[in-house]
Amino acid sequence: MSTTEPTDAATPDGMTPERLTLGVAARLSRYLQVLTQAKKMGKETISSQELSDYTHVNSTQIRRDLSGFGKFGKRGVGYNVESLVSQIRGILRTAGQHNIALFGAGHLGRAIASSDIFADHGFRVVAIFDADPSKVGMEVGPQRVRHVDELRAVVEDEDVVVGVLAVPPAAAQALADDLVEAGVKIIFNYSETLLQVPPEVTVHTSSPAVDLLYALYFYLT
């Protein structure tokens, strides 16, 4: 399984700094998640302490992370939420729209398809696939479930950049292989399968059990 590689990021003044470390990229993503929710709630400004309360990242670290890309906040006022959302998206290169193909039209797949979590960050589910004939053709939100045999054509026609696997473990590797062959470079894996992919393909595996173990460790210590 590959790991996430640091990426180049452009500063607000157009200069390109050193490649982001994994730690900085991960923290910026967490800030963006909080800021996006704050924006939806109508919040116009937010302080580094408030960001710290929601992300559990030290406020000094937050200010250090953000100051590396320009002067975003004002002392005593905080950060403008909308502006900071835009700036961090630019740094992480997530501005604009990115198309997703979702695999699995079961309970998890339907929940993912109906959630705003991807849309909030500029990702759009443009296709949903399943191998079960009883699910093919059903409507999930605005999408009609397609058979996995259509994968390659849809990836090309819809310019899919991310494949999301919400399928049983036994089906995950074969689908990952098909996505790699179709040219998809990012796979978000909700199954427990340890996927084998080429080094140029990024796999992120999301596991509630791992997240719970992580939280439990810090609770017990």
Automatic annotation (TrEMBL):
Q: Which residues form a coiled coil?
A: none
Give the GO cellular component terms, alphabetically: cytoplasm
* Molecular functions (GO terms): DNA binding; DNA-binding transcription factor activity
Q: Which residues bind DNA?
A: 30-69
Any one GO BP annotation for this protein:
negative regulation of DNA-templated transcription
Task: Cite the CoA-binding domain residue spans from the record.
Answer: 96-194
The record lists NAD(+) as bound by: 104-109
Name the domain of life: Bacteria
Q: Tell me the compartments it is located in.
A: Cytoplasm
- Record key words, sorted: Cytoplasm, DNA-binding, NAD, Repressor, Transcription, Transcription regulation
Read off the HAMAP family from this record.
Answer: Rex (MF_01131)
Assembly notes:
Homodimer.
Relate the protein's function as given in its record: Modulates transcription in response to changes in cellular NADH/NAD(+) redox state.
Q: Which family does it belong to?
A: Belongs to the transcriptional regulatory Rex family.
Q: What is this protein called?
A: Redox-sensing transcriptional repressor Rex
Originating species = Paraconexibacter algicola
